[in-house]
Amino acid sequence: MRNLSHIRRNALSSVAVAASLTLAASVAAIGTAHAAVKVTITGTVSCAKFDDSTPKIVTITPKKGTVGSDETPSEEQVEQYTIKLTGIPNSGTTVTAKVVCEDDEGDTNTYKVKDVPIKKPANGGPVNLNLPA
pTM for the whole thing? Predict the structure, then answer.
């Protein structure tokens, strides 16, 4: 009898260890899937729809992650910008881009582009987003 109970205890111990390892692997996989990454967004921004206006600032607000912005030189109606966002989920998110344009007299006009999908490219390079999109 003693041998049979010893075998039963060993079998139960093995099952418990296997279940624990399976659970730990599942939790690790879930944690990795939700890890946050940095995403760089570059592109051009245009204020051509407003007479004599140039881009002053571009702000990108992700649904999940940290807001980023870039001030442009405000010399031309179309300017280059680069924004680095942090806290973006590996699976991606959507963003709203807000552009503030300013004319020679200091008057401002604003436009938004909503629900733009953003995900870090597989090659790790920047995401290209030209505004208006």
Answer: 0.73
Q: In 3-state terms, what secondary structure has residue 58? A: strand
pLDDT above 50 (res 107): yes
**Both tokens of residue 31?**
């944690």
What is residue 105's DSSP assignment? T
The candidate with the shortest Cα–Cα distance to 94, out of 123, 120, 64, is 64
Alpha-carbon distance of 81 to 117, in angstroms, equals 18
Whole-angstrom Cα distance, residue 14 to residue 16? 5
Element (H, E) at 25: helix 2-33
Q: What is d(CA 98, CA 88) in angstroms, rounded to the nearest whole number?
A: 18
Residues 6+ apart with CB under 8 A from 133: 97, 113, 116
Q: Which two tokens stand for residue 7?
A: 């075998």
